[in-house]
Design a protein that fits this description.
Belongs to the LysR transcriptional regulatory family. With 296 residues, the protein is of the alpha/beta class. Helix content is 45%, strand content 23%.
Length: 296
């Protein structure tokens, strides 16, 4: 590769057409300009100018190198412009969170996407371990986790918490629920549902709860948006974080049962430690925090 300093000196020399004026523009001495020219000619392996007294003309090789110098300048200008612009509404953003929180968050992102055609938002619903790995690998700009990862390469900010909910049809009312009532209805299971059952049902029904593997299951579904649908239609019960309930299109048809002992999942917004956030990632962070605020 050609030496960048020598190339810039030669490009300036070509523009001014004079060694003294080139030296003044570059804040160099005239012998310094001549030295850069000689070194560049040695690197190219050909003469770049033909001297005619105090003036000069470019050789064919000189014309090609001058064109390269102008092109390099233009490329560097485009790079500087792109870096300095830091446009909030242009470029990609990669976010990862749980499926239930993604349902709550995505509608908050759509107005921004609609107003910014040069923006590309990638929201991935993933297990906690996958989010953590993606943050460490740099695949995600931001991630929402249920615990502080306490990792040397990550920085976490607590943005709120959401309740783990026992969800029944709206007509269930406020009548206290027993474990036998739930067993009669049957669980609408999903990939996280068994863990939620061990967390919430064992806490509230310690004498009766037999373990998630022995629950009466009425049905199962792995599409987060469809989990409450059966319950809304009077079939079974389910367990979801509050975000999964709030994001359901017909949440008025659901009832969240207030059990004596409540469980909460913390929400931590995580990024790579020391990583400068672009304007668009900073705005995405604000939207995530706003969505978390809906759960209070």
């Amino acid at each position: 590769m050609l030496n960048a300093a020598w190339l810039e000196t030669f490009t300036t020399l070509c523009e001014t057409g004079h060694f003294t004026r080139a030296a003044e523009r570059l804040n160099m001495t005239q012998p310094g300009v001549s030295q850069h020219l000689r070194k560049l000619e040695q690197q190219v392996g050909q003469g770049l100018i033909s001297r005619q007294g105090k003036s000069f003309t470019l050789t064919p090789a000189g014309e090609a190198v001058f064109e390269l110098g102008l092109s390099r300048r233009a490329e560097e200008k485009r790079l500087r412009d792109a870096i300095e612009a830091d446009d909030r509404d242009a470029g990609p953003v990669h976010i990862a969170c749980s499926g239930s929180f993604a349902m709550l968050l995505y509608p908050n992102l759509i107005p921004w996407m609609h107003a910014a055609p040069d923006l590309s938002v990638h929201l991935e619903a993933a297990p906690q371990a996958e989010i953590l790995a993606g943050l460490l690998e740099g695949r995600f700009d931001l991630g929402v986790l249920g615990t502080d990862p306490d990792h040397a390469r990550l920085e976490a900010t607590h943005i709120g918490r959401e309740e783990l909910c026992l969800v029944l049809p709206a007509d269930a009312g406020d009548t206290p629920v027993s474990f036998s009532d739930l067993e009669a209805r049957g669980l609408i299971a999903h990939p996280d549902g068994y863990g939620y059952a061990d967390d919430l049902l064992r806490l509230n029904f310690p004498e009766d709860y037999p373990g998630a593997d022995r629950l009466s299951v009425r049905g199962s579904v792995n599409q987060i948006g469809q989990i409450p649908a059966s319950v809304a239609n009077g079939v079974g019960y389910t367990l979801l974080p509050r975000s999964g309930v709030e994001a359901f299109r017909d949440k008025a048809s659901l009832s969240v049962v207030q059990l004596p002992k409540r469980r909460w999942h913390e929400l931590w917004l995580v990024k790579r430690r020391g990583r400068h956030l672009s304007a668009r990632v900073r705005y995405a962070r604000d939207v995530i925090e706003e969505a978390a605020g809906q759960l209070r």
